[in-house]
Amino acid sequence: MFLKQGFIRNEIKFYSHGTPIGFIFNAGLMVGVIVGIVFIVQVLHGIVNGIGEDWRPASDPYLHARYTRPSLRAKSDNKRALQAEMNLAEEAAAPLLCMVSRLTRQKGIDLLLDCMPDLVEAGAQIAVLGSGERQYEERLGDLARRYPGRIGVAIGHNEGLAHRLIAGGDMFLMPSRFEPCGLAQMYAMNYGTPPVARRTGGLSDTIVDTNEAALHDGIATGFLFDGQSSASLMFALRRALACYKTKTVWRAIQANGMKRDFSWNNAAQAYAEVYRAALRLPEGGGAAPRPPISRPQAPGKAKPKSPKAALSKR
């Protein structure tokens, strides 16, 4: 009840991604809060977070080799160094899937664990950094011992390794059941590492799913899936693996992500607009003129075409 009153009594509400209402309902907040929110939706403002200057592949001190979009080929040097660091076989052609996360059900680690044997069978490598619930840590350890050279696991927090995983991986995994905004998917796109993520919260706001239309318009940046099952995740991973085999397509997806502007400049401008709107509130309170929802801009707009068979086929 106190939370509901807090929402209602404040004329301007911030939320850390572009689709606040859908996320609030999907997150399953208490009914009393939701009832209050229904009446103040017009004053909710979703603003996507920005990422700091310490997440730039051109200047990242943690990397084996720094790179930019024009020098993206240097990314392979980071992959080779990461394979050695994570005790993986040095195979340039093997797609390397990385995850940096808390090991909890919310982050979808259980979905990935179920997919790992199939991914290894498909020729992929997996590298995971994180800590959390013991059951997931133990399952990861078991799989790493079962598939030496194919699965690498580091339990704990390691800032430098997190940077190297995002730079050296071919894909970045975020199968979160819910995600208020998320930063790692933006780091990954900035580093030319297309994310594979569940379509929820800020992940759906910041990642443009790869299909024929998005590729044609030059805006595809990753792979999204619906549902909360390992089968749903595996379907998206198979789409990603199919694209990875076509280097021109994969390079285009990487370049699209690296062109996106996720800096704090955009977020700061959006916050300034909301504050300016707050100063223009009508006397006695009430809803402010609502500025547009802030989402990082991608050039063009995808047309609703059917995905190519290679992108959707298992």
Indicate how many domains the architecture comprises: 2
Binned strand content: 5-15%
CATH superfamily of the largest domain: Glycogen Phosphorylase B
Shape: globular
Give the biggest beta sheet: 6 strands, parallel
How many distinct beta strands?
A: 8
The CATH first-level class of the largest domain comes to Alpha Beta
End-to-end span in angstroms? 47 Å
Helix-strand makeup class:
alpha/beta
Helix content: 40-55%
Q: Give the neighbour order of strands across the main sheet.
A: 5-4-3-6-7-8
In the CATH hierarchy, the third-tier topology of the largest domain is known as: Rossmann fold
What radius of gyration results from the CA coordinates? Answer: 20 Å
Estimate the mean pLDDT confidence: 83
Question: What's the CATH architecture name of the largest domain?
Answer: 3-Layer(aba) Sandwich
Helical run tally: 14
Order of helices and strands: HEHHEHEHEHEHEHEHHEHHHH
The poorly predicted ranges are: 1-9, 11-15, 27-41, 309-314
